[in-house]
Automatic annotation (TrEMBL):
<feature type="domain" description="HhH-GPD">
    <location>
        <begin position="39"/>
        <end position="186"/>
    </location>
</feature>
<comment type="function">
    <text>DNA repair enzyme that has both DNA N-glycosylase activity and AP-lyase activity. The DNA N-glycosylase activity releases various damaged pyrimidines from DNA by cleaving the N-glycosidic bond, leaving an AP (apurinic/apyrimidinic) site. The AP-lyase activity cleaves the phosphodiester bond 3' to the AP site by a beta-elimination, leaving a 3'-terminal unsaturated sugar and a product with a terminal 5'-phosphate.</text>
</comment>
<keyword id="KW-0456">Lyase</keyword>
<keyword id="KW-0408">Iron</keyword>
<keyword id="KW-0479">Metal-binding</keyword>
<keyword id="KW-0326">Glycosidase</keyword>
<dbReference type="InterPro" id="IPR023170">
    <property type="entry name" value="HhH_base_excis_C"/>
</dbReference>
<protein>
    <recommendedName>
        <fullName>Endonuclease III</fullName>
        <ecNumber>4.2.99.18</ecNumber>
    </recommendedName>
</protein>
<dbReference type="GO" id="GO:0003677">
    <property type="term" value="F:DNA binding"/>
</dbReference>
<dbReference type="Pfam" id="PF00730">
    <property type="entry name" value="HhH-GPD"/>
</dbReference>
<dbReference type="GO" id="GO:0046872">
    <property type="term" value="F:metal ion binding"/>
</dbReference>
<keyword id="KW-0238">DNA-binding</keyword>
<keyword id="KW-0255">Endonuclease</keyword>
<comment type="similarity">
    <text>Belongs to the Nth/MutY family.</text>
</comment>
<keyword id="KW-0234">DNA repair</keyword>
<keyword id="KW-0004">4Fe-4S</keyword>
<keyword id="KW-0411">Iron-sulfur</keyword>
Length: 217
C-alpha cells in the first residue's frame, strides 16, 4: 500500500469498527468537559470518570468552583495524580472564566490556551467535542499509531497533528480522533502491538517483520 491507499483504508476500517464515537469522558457541558480533560493528563479516562462525579457534585460551574478551597479540590481529585497543580489550575481557570468570559468557556483556541493548565491538546478536545469545530487532538497514543501506520514521520505531536490534518478530510477529524483512540485501546496498544500484530498494522504493512521504533512525543 502507498500512503494514499493506507489513508483510505484506515479511514474506512475505523468507520466500520466504530460508526458511533461517544466521548469517553463523562461531562454535562463545555465547562465540565474542560475540567475532565484537564484531569485526564497522565491519568486514565476511567479514573477521571470515577472522580469527576464527586467534584461536580460540589461544583459544576465556575462560580461554584471558586467557592471551594483549593485544598478541597485537591483532596477530591487526588486519585487523578498531579493533584496540587491540577487543583490550582482548576481554581484559577474558573476565576478567569468568571472575570473575563462571563462564566462561559470561550469558543476560541487562543482564549482556551490562555487558561491555566490548558494546552493545545486540551483546547482541541474542547473545541471539537464541546463546540463541534474541526480539530484533531493528538496525544501520545494517537502519535504512536500514526507512526506505526506510516502517516507521519514527525518526532512530536505538533508535527503529527499537522500531518493527520493534511491527510484526512476536515469533516472527519473529530470522528477520527476518537476512532483512533478506541482502536488503540482495544487493538493497537503500547504493549500489545509493535506495528506487526494488529489488523490495521498487518494490512498496511503485510511484509513488515521488525517492530516499529516510535519516536517519543
Amino acid at each position: 500500500m502507498n500512503k494514499k491507499e493506507r489513508v483510505a483504508y484506515i479511514q474506512q476500517r475505523l468507520q466500520e469498527l466504530y460508526p458511533e464515537t461517544p466521548i469517553p469522558l463523562s461531562h454535562e457541558d463545555a465547562y465540565t468537559l474542560l475540567i475532565a480533560v484537564l484531569l485526564s493528563a497522565q491519568c486514565t479516562d476511567k479514573r477521571v470518570n470515577e472522580v469527576t462525579p464527586h467534584l461536580f457534585a460540589e461544583a459544576n460551574t465556575p462560580a461554584a468552583m471558586v467557592r471551594l478551597p483549593v485544598e478541597r479540590i485537591q483532596a477530591i481529585i487526588k486519585p487523578c495524580g498531579l493533584a496540587p497543580r491540577k487543583a490550582q489550575a482548576i481554581f484559577e481557570l474558573s476565576r478567569i472564566l468568571l472575570e473575563q468570559h462571563g462564566g462561559q468557556v470561550p469558543e476560541h483556541f487562543a482564549a482556551l490556551e490562555a487558561l491555566p493548565g490548558v494546552g493545545h491538546k486540551t483546547a482541541s478536545v474542547v473545541m471539537s467535542q464541546a463546540f463541534g469545530h474541526p480539530a484533531f487532538p493528538v496525544d501520545t497514543h494517537i502519535h504512536r499509531l500514526a507512526q506505526r501506520w506510516g502517516l507521519t514521520s514527525g518526532k512530536n505531536v505538533v508535527q503529527t497533528e499537522q500531518d493527520l490534518k493534511r491527510l484526512f478530510p476536515k469533516d472527519a477529524w473529530n470522528r477520527l480522533h476518537l476512532q483512533i483512540i478506541f482502536y488503540g485501546r482495544e487493538s493497537c496498544t503500547a504493549r500489545g502491538c509493535d506495528g506487526t500484530v494488529c489488523e490495521i498494522c498487518r494490512t498496511c504493512y503485510p511484509r513488515r517483520r521488525q517492530p516499529v521504533q516510535t519516536q517519543k512525543a
